[in-house]
Every structure is written in structure tokens, then in C-alpha cells.
Design a protein that fits this description.
This protein is an alpha+beta fold. The chain has 3 domains: 72 residues, SH3 type barrels (Roll), CATH 2.30.30; 150 residues, no CATH class; 216 residues, FAS1 domain, CATH 2.30.180. The strands form 7 sheets. Strands 11-6-16-15-14-13-12 form a 7-stranded mixed β-sheet. The longest helix has 19 residues. The two termini are 31 Å apart. 42% of the residues are buried. The N terminus is likely disordered.
Length: 519
């Protein structure tokens, strides 16, 4: 199974990593791994892989893992959280053994530095800032804020969390209010809506990920949020921005509110910090707010400045039927799957259309200007309009059908080649070129052309396509952070039994004055 290295869970030195005892508690049993070297997670954070010195992998479903203990202790930065009486909600979310809060203690214990066990004053410099936790106080959670997913008919709702240890199951009460994203005004309470414990647990789990950073970039590892970079990816794939003075942070919704000139929900101030051997805890006066669910890739591309590229994203299903790529005589469910396969955007349980090829995965889009797309069309790029004119009335021969299909694939792959897996941000510090896979599969060779991305620093970003052409991200229109959300259900009524984000695909859009080509 391919896993993504999210963090080195034990040590950075291969010498010191040898023969590190590790104890794992699961829902079924408890056992020891004597020669563990590091831990990785699958890209969807569903599976934890414990690697050993013998290059073995022990695969464990995340939902089954209750605790991972290094050298039989749990001495790490979360001990500070546990001792803080101002953070009871966060304490409970981290240390609870409730099944739905599966990113609990074992998740954070993986950051511990076993070389420093029993020696709190000794620090290994390269491990000093392995990760950061931003912990809102209980009073911060008590304020009503427009956090994350909306709960009522997929409209934006503001929430507040109150700690009540007398609550059965989960000692957290959630209150909901209507929220106007355009003005930032929290309106009246939403009456008679009850959230199940599963919903609350999922919400707390999302908050933990949104407030946790692992410094996977080498330039960030020693100094963390003070490395000189401005943007950092959280464990749920979203982005936070750190102020130049290091005294405050912003989630994407807060950045957007500030850009709109709103005076509320713009900043989370750091009021205290504690450095430990395996990371830093930052106590903040308000939760970090992820992107509003209304801010999707679809909503951005359908706005001003992207009209020509957006037209290419909107598939003409009549053309697909005329070319027998979708046969209307197939069962309805089959036709729906085929249309989704060819589509850029599909409608799911979300506030907007979602990208069809990025379920639950971070992505980057380099969106060409209108002028760049018009130049490509003048150079022979097919459009859905031109395909409808040529093939919308049907085809007369197999040769004509094959030519039409070739043009459909050319257009679809042209659009998809402007996306790649993983987020690349135009930030302060430079980085060397690195390659990213795209959602393009060439019909002849069944290969996937890649994009190469690098930065000279100072907010620049360069993308090089398979032909060797290099384009620069434009200053106006870079670092537009979005999120595609799919819910487990479309909630209506007064009781929400099992609402959570089934898929969340955070992304960033950059404008480019040119088009990318794979041939």
C-alpha cells in the first residue's frame, strides 16, 4: 500500500532509530514493536503504517488505534494541554477514547522524541519544532464563530462550543446561529436543531486537524512558524497564514474577511506559547477558521476573470452521447457515472459543484487568463461549442466518430493538465523544483504527464509543463485558497444524526498568463 510520509514519528537519525520499543494499543489488543523506525499515514489518514528496521510495514486502520506509546510513556507536548484548565474542550478532544474522535492521543503521541525521555531540559535542535498545536481556550470556543461546515440545509452556520462535564457521552454542547458571510454578522439562534454525538465528535476531530501543523518543509523544521515563510499547511490540508511579527494567525476564512474589509472574524491572536522537545503549543484567543464551504473551485472559476477557462470545464453531455461515449440506453446509474468520469465538476452533497477527480485530496490549479485561452483556441484547441457544431447532430462513420472522440479527450485533458495533486503556495522562501502528478491519463500511452514547480522566493512560483515551457504565477490572482466539500448527507429538519464532511478537498488557485501543454 502506498503511504504518504506525513511525519517521522520517532526520530530523525537512523542510528538512534534502531531498536526503539513502541507499544500499540488498539480496540482489540495491545502489543509491542521492538525495532520501529518511523510511522507514516495513508493520504486519506485512514491507515497508519508502522515501519521497522527490517523494512516491514505493520498496517493498522486509524479507527482501531487507540494509543501509540514510545518507550512505554506518553511524555510529549500534549501533557501541557492536559494540565491547562482553560482548555477543557481541547483536552477532551485530544485525550478522549470516543471512537469518532480517532485523531486523539495516539495521533499526537507520534510526534514525541524518545531520545529526550526523562530529560526535559535537553533538546535536539532539528527536533525542536517538529510540529505546532494552536489551542483555542474554552472562552474562545464559547464565542459564536463561523467555523467550517454548515449544518442546516448546507447554509453557513456559526457555532459555539460549551464544556459541560455532566453531558452524557460528549461533554461538549454545540449551539448554532445563522451567519451572513458577506457582512460577517451572526444572526439569531437556529431553533430546535440537535446534533448527535457523532456529529459533534466529527466537528471536534476536524478542529484538531485544522489547528495542527507538521513542519514537513526542511526550511521550517528548526524555527517552525518563525522560519520566514508566511503560509503553512495544517493536517487537514487547509492553510493558515502567520503574521510577520508571529503574534497572530489566520485561517482562510479570516484572510478572506480581512480582504473584504470586515472587522470581525479576521485574526486569531497568540496569547501564550510553550516550547517542548517535540513541538510548540500556542494558546489562541479564537479558533482558526478554514475556508467557507461556499468558496469552492467551482465558485471561483465561475466568477469574473476565468470565463473562457470555465467554459472549457463545462462538459456538453449531448456531444458525449452523439459520439457514443455515453449511451442513453444504458441504465441511469451507469450514464451518471460515465458523465462524472468525463466531467470537471459534479454535483454531490455539498454547497457547490465539486471537482470530479480530487475526492478528499489537496490540489493546485493554474488557471489561464481569458486571453491565454483565446490564443489556445485560435491555435486549434477544440471547445465544447465547436464539438457541438461538428458532432452534435450525430456522426456518419466510424472514422468521424474516432476523430470526435480524440478531440473530446484532447479538450478534457487540456483542462485537467492545469491541475495537480498537492498544494503549492507562492511563499517567502525559495524551493527547488519538484514534480507533481496531474489527473491526466493519456488514452494512447496510459501515462500521466507531470508538472514541475519551483520558487525563487519572495512570493514567486514557476510551473514547467511537459514541453519544457515555464510560466510564472501572476501576482494578481495567486494564492486563492478554496475547498471542495462533500457531506455525508443533505441535512433537513430539526435533528442531524450523522452529518460530517465525507470528503474535503482543500486547494489553491493561481492565475497564469498562458496555457500548459503536455505535448
Amino acid at each position: 500500500m502506498r503511504t504518504r510520509l506525513l511525519f517521522m514519528a520517532l526520530l530523525a537519525s537512523n542510528v538512534l532509530m534502531a531498536q526503539v520499543p513502541l507499544k500499540v494499543k488498539t480496540t482489540e489488543k495491545e502489543y509491542r514493536v521492538e525495532d520501529a523506525t518511523h510511522i507514516t499515514f495513508s493520504e486519506d489518514l485512514a491507515v497508519q503504517a508502522i515501519h521497522t528496521k527490517a523494512d516491514d510495514e505493520i498496517l493498522l486502520p486509524m479507527r482501531d488505534v487507540r494509543e501509540v506509546i514510545l518507550r512505554d510513556t506518553l511524555q510529549n507536548v500534549t501533557n501541557y494541554i492536559l494540565a491547562d484548565s482553560d482548555c477543557k474542550i481541547y483536552n477532551w478532544a485530544v485525550f478522549s477514547d470516543l471512537e469518532q474522535v480517532y485523531m486523539g492521543t495516539h495521533f499526537y503521541s507520534n510526534f514525541a522524541d524518545p531520545a529526550q525521555r526523562g530529560n526535559a531540559t535537553a533538546f535536539t535542535p532539528e527536533l525542536r519544532s517538529r510540529f505546532a498545536l494552536f489551542v483555542p481556550t474554552d472562552s474562545a470556543f464559547a464565542d459564536t464563530v463561523p467555523y467550517g461546515i454548515s449544518f442546516v440545509s448546507l447554509r453557513t452556520a456559526a457555532i459555539s462550543l460549551l464544556y459541560n462535564k455532566r453531558n452524557s457521552g460528549i461533554p461538549v454542547t454545540v449551539r448554532l446561529c445563522y451567519y451572513d458571510p458577506e457582512t460577517g454578522v451572526v444572526k439569531q439562534r437556529i431553533p430546535s436543531v440537535a446534533l448527535s454525538n457523532a456529529c459533534i465528535a466529527r466537528l471536534l476531530n476536524e478542529m484538531l486537524l485544522q489547528h495542527t501543523i507538521f513542519f514537513d518543509r526542511p526550511e521550517d523544521r528548526e524555527l517552525g512558524i518563525r522560519s520566514g515563510n508566511e503560509y503553512f499547511k495544517t493536517m487537514d490540508g487547509n492553510v493558515i497564514r502567520v503574521a510577520a511579527d508571529g503574534k497572530s494567525v489566520q485561517g482562510v476564512l479570516q484572510m478572506d474577511n480581512e480582504a473584504k474589509g470586515l472587522e470581525v472574524f479576521t485574526t486569531s491572536n497568540i496569547i501564550d506559547s510553550h516550547q517542548k522537545d517535540n513541538g510548540t503549543v500556542y494558546k489562541i484567543d479564537s479558533p482558526i477558521l478554514p475556508p467557507a464551504i461556499q468558496k469552492s473551485a467551482y465558485s471561483v472559476l465561475s466568477g469574473e476573470g476565468y470565463e473562457e477557462f470555465f467554459k472549457l470545464c463545462r462538459v456538453d453531455y449531448d456531444v458525449l452521447e452523439a459520439l457514443s461515449l455515453v449511451d442513453p440506453d444504458y441504465p441511469a446509474s451507469t450514464c451518471e457515472k460515465l458523465r462524472a468520469f468525463f466531467s470537471t465538476f459534479v454535483k454531490k452533497n455539498g454547497a457547490d459543484y465539486n471537482l470530479s477527480f480530487f475526492p478528499n485530496h489537496p490540489f493546485t490549479l493554474y488557471a489561464p487568463t481569458n486571453e491565454a485561452v483565446r490564443r489556445a483556441i485560435a491555435d486549434g484547441l477544440p471547445t465544447w461549442e465547436s464539438l457541438a457544431g461538428a458532432y452534435g447532430g450525430g456522426v456518419g462513420s466510424d472514422v468521424e466518430r474516432e476523430e470526435g472522440r480524440r478531440k473530446v479527450y484532447e479538450l478534457i485533458n487540456f483542462v485537467r493538465y492545469h491541475f495537480h495533486f498537492g498544494t503549492e503556495i507562492a511563499d517567502k522562501l525559495p524551493f527547488a523544483a519538484r514534480e507533481h502528478a496531474t489527473p491526466v491519463i493519456l488514452p494512447d500511452s496510459h501515462t500521466t504527464p507531470q508538472l514541475r514547480v519551483s520558487s525563487a522566493g519572495n512570493g514567486t512560483l514557476s510551473v514547467t509543463d511537459a514541453t519544457g515551457q515555464t510560466l510564472q504565477v501572476m501576482d494578481e490572482g495567486k494564492n486563492v485558497f478554496v475547498r471542495d466539500v462533500e457531506c455525508s448527507e443533505n441535512p433537513t429538519g430539526t435533528s442531524i444524526s450523522n452529518l460530517y464532511m465525507e470528503h474535503s478537498s482543500p486547494g489553491v488557485i493561481h492565475r497564469i498568463n498562458g496555457v500548459l501543454r503536455y505535448k
